[in-house]
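Researcher: Going back to the complex we discussed earlier. I've cleaned up the inputs and rechecked each line, so this should be the final set. Can you rerun the prediction on the complete assembly and write out the structure?
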Amino acid sequence: MIVPLLAVPLLAAALVALMAPRAVIVVHVVATLLTFAIGLTLTARAVSGVTTLAFDGVLRVDALSGWMIAVIVVVASLAAMEAPRYVSDRAPRVFYPLFHLMVFTMLLAVCTDDVGLMWVAVEGTTLASVFLVNFERTRASLEAAYKYLLICSVGIAIAFVGTVLIYYAEAVRQQGVIEHAPHALRWTALLALAPSLPPRVLQLAFVFLVVGYGTKAGLAPMHTWLPDAHSEAPAPVSAMMSGVLLSVGAYAILRFKPIVDAAAGPSFAQRIFVALGLLSLAVAATFLWNPRNYKRMLAYSSVEHIGLVSLGLGFGGALGVSGALLHVANHGLAKSVVFLLAGRIRAAYGTAELAGVRGLLRALPMTGRGFVLAVLALMGLPPFGLFTSEIMIFAAGFREGHTWAAATALLLLVVAFGGLLRATQSMMFGPAPATAHTGGGWMTSLPMAVALAALVVIGLAWPPGLGAALDLAARTVIR
Amino acid sequence: MTTLSNLLAFLALGATLVLVWRQSWRGRVRLFVVQSLLLGALAAVIGALAKRPSLLFVAAVFVVVKIVIARVLTRMAAGAPLRPTRPGRTAGIPLLVAGALVVVAYVIMLPVSSLASSALPTRGAIPLAFAMALIGLFVCVTGRDALGQVTGFLVFENAIFGLAVVATYGMPGLIEAGVFLEALVIVLLMEGVIVQIRREHDSLDVERLQELRG
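Model: Rerun complete. Updated structure for the full complex:
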């Protein structure tokens, strides 16, 4: 089951690169649907408690991996449906292969048990997406791609130092010799060994891992590449990067948390998560108070939400971690929809500046309404799912005694809320320009409507099994 | 083994420091090659003395990959301004910072190199390798233009390879392969981006990259 899930996007990437442009779209659609179907089937198995193994355990899908697979395939499908708008006349044989390669690397990162292979996969996500960021080949997108490649490569190399230190810590249990346990970089093996590992080395390793993967996750202060890359990439790529690639970075850190917790006690990792979460919220709130460009606004909103995820992990407890995981899924849905709609708005108005967009509700009624709904969801308003996950995160904060951190975070959320509201309001009303054309029929908006509906369902009444799935996923990283 | 690994790591650190001081691109690329050769030798020595034949193979691949990268780097430097620092600036301050970073590296790596349970013969080289990494990062961050930043990144990456070798006697093969492949791809991507930057801006000066603010 894992092998087909990884093989489909990889094969699709290879096929699309070789095929005639006419057949490309067929392969793209078939591959997307197959990835979606296999991914959700695998998730359903994983969150019901069945751990799937492949390749002698190198690939391993437990409940946490299953949760991430679902988020990846759903966001990738949403983005894939919108992709043809951006590629029709421009280089389909560049865009689609890289798109599927990006999906493949993200899936590999969450499907492997080997933390070294996970590192390779996370680095692969950068390499696959850097050309997509520069797809429009403007000066700004070039600059964004350069910053993205350099900063994320440095970040990921720092994460490699962390991985090396973990491998070192595991091997030096005997005086004067390096003796690696069998499959020593397997997460399961490390978890079993963790209580006997030297705590100070593991703490140091964790700091490197947080800085490294935190760069990919967009946690402040390592977020500086993010607003550029996310705002300059074509909308489907922005949707994938903001919706799920950041969460894959956070997932990588999360995998190391129980290992460090077992070796050095839980408070060390928790303090780091809370501090970075608060800092990310503060950075995002500062920018969101007065944004000038709506795609950058959405990118900073991602910094805000990844900060919330980090806070949830830092507040800890089953409630905090499951709140953070639910937030990852909710944010994936809402942010991909809002980025895809922002792409349509940009196509219609020809600008990403906030000042250039007025009268959206009249010019593009469907897109405008969808955009408002998705932004309201991102603000954490009921009845959307983000409200629920934020409540879970903050309840965990107050319950676990992080009162000050939780209160500060709430205050920062209010600031971000005000900024987002003001900016969205200015886009919605006012005189509509005559030139704006509509964004296609209702069929093309259907996947996004379904995504918003799913957010409402998560916000109002959890479908049967969601609570149990979430609990099982959270328990894989709580001791 | 202790003496040899310490000596090679120390020489590689020396090459890195000279690289910070060196004021011509060709000199810097040559020093990058020297650093790579020394680290390759370090890996080979540890592979031979600790009886890990796979590490000999890794060392050979490492050297080949780095020579390819150095050629790409030379190609990139062909159109760059002659000097990596601004006219009128000396290398004194960067060299001083690099020296301070060596001390910082020793402090940060204290829990690793002084670990009671490990009297690893190569542990003396761990802070040296990490110092190289910090200096590479410093060169990368303070690079005057895209080429300088890429050079810094490559020095940084070399140092991390050295760190992996002295601390773990080599990572698993699959991961080493991934590391090399990615280093190569990153440099080729960088070259592509740099060619485009040069075409767009007629310069590699990163201070001209100012479209995106806020």
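Model: Worth noting: Residues 2-203 of chain B form one domain.
Researcher: Good, that matches what I expected from the previous run.
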